[in-house]
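Need the bound structure for iron/sulfur cluster, inputs here:
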Amino acid sequence: MRERFWERLSLGELNKREWEALCDGCGQCCLLREVEPNAVTVFGVACELLDIEAARCRDYARRLEKVPSCHRLTPANVPRYDWLPKTCAYRLLHHGKPLPSWHPLLAGGRDKMRKKGITVSHYALPCEEVPRRHLKRHVVERWPLVSRASQKK
Ligand code: SF4
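Answer from helper R.:
Posting the output first, comments after.
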């Protein structure tokens, strides 16, 4: 990996290792969510493949086959994925913002982000335990989606 690549390169310039290292492993994008035209609602309920304790996908290589609603992030789609959490490193880099000090690339590991409660491990529930009709009882966050035009201002 190139030295401090996250400060110097755009998403499209990253190699595969750098791209993967950029993910902080928070697991927030692995929570169930409802995306409406003007808002996103995030539920504290994990995708069936998420290892909640580790906040890691249990089958990252085949996740798209196993969970059709999962997404493979790319430099082309990150700008369109308004539902990515505000702390997501891909989202931050796309908007030209610095990584937070707890990011594993800066902190040297995931301890700091765990202590700060950034990972979903301490609150996410397995989807098997929450019937779909009860999802709305587990809202953890809801935010308005701002149009891309106004984000550039
Ligand atoms: S929200 Fe972003 S940084 Fe967090 S696990 Fe998902 S892709 Fe990685």
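Comments: The pocket of iron/sulfur cluster is lined by residues 23-29, 73, 84-85, 88-90 (CB under 6 Å). The beta strands are 31-35, 39-46, 50-51, 56-57, 125-126, 139-144.
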